[in-house]
Amino acid sequence: MAMSKSDQIHDLRGKGMGEREAVLVSMKKTAAEKKEEKMDMAPATASPREEYSYGLRLDLNEEVLDKLGLDELPDVGDTLALDVKGTVESVSQRTDASDKTKHRSLTLQITDMSLE
Question: Which of 4, 34, 69, 95 is most buried, taking the most CB atoms under 10 A from its CB?
Fold first, then answer.
């Protein structure tokens, strides 16, 4: 019997990070998403340079870089592997009465991280 996506995610709880293989999904916006977003924004706020949604950027300060053992900074444009573990801090789901559009969100507090 195949597990639903929700069951698969819940099944990962309690497992160590090394006990599963991560499936990476590109978070880059599609052309259709960019077009829709551009139509929703005022011309002064639209930015064609935003390839990824707000909230997907991490800023790591000196303290965090030291904890991760990163003595030398990588070059701009380098690709790094990032493994994280986090705690779900909040979840929200609502439906707009006017157009029945569903909106969901999840706040995740990163608690453990490695960087390669």
Answer: 34
Whether 62 contacts 71, CB under 8 Å: no
The CA distance from 39 to 46, in Å, is: 9
Domain residues for 81?
A: 5-115
Lowest mean pLDDT of 12-16, 18-22, 43-47, 107-111, name the range.
12-16
Q: Determine the Cα–Cα distance for residues 16 and 115; give it in Å rounded to an integer.
A: 17
Separation of alpha carbons 56 and 67, rounded Å: 21
CA distance 60 to 100: 39
Please spell the DSSP secondary structure of 64-116, one letter per residue: HHHHTT--SPPPTT----EEEEEEEEEEEEEE-TTT--EEEEEEEEEEEEEE-
Q: How many domains does the chain have?
A: 1
Give the whole-angstrom CA distance, residue 110 versus residue 105.
16
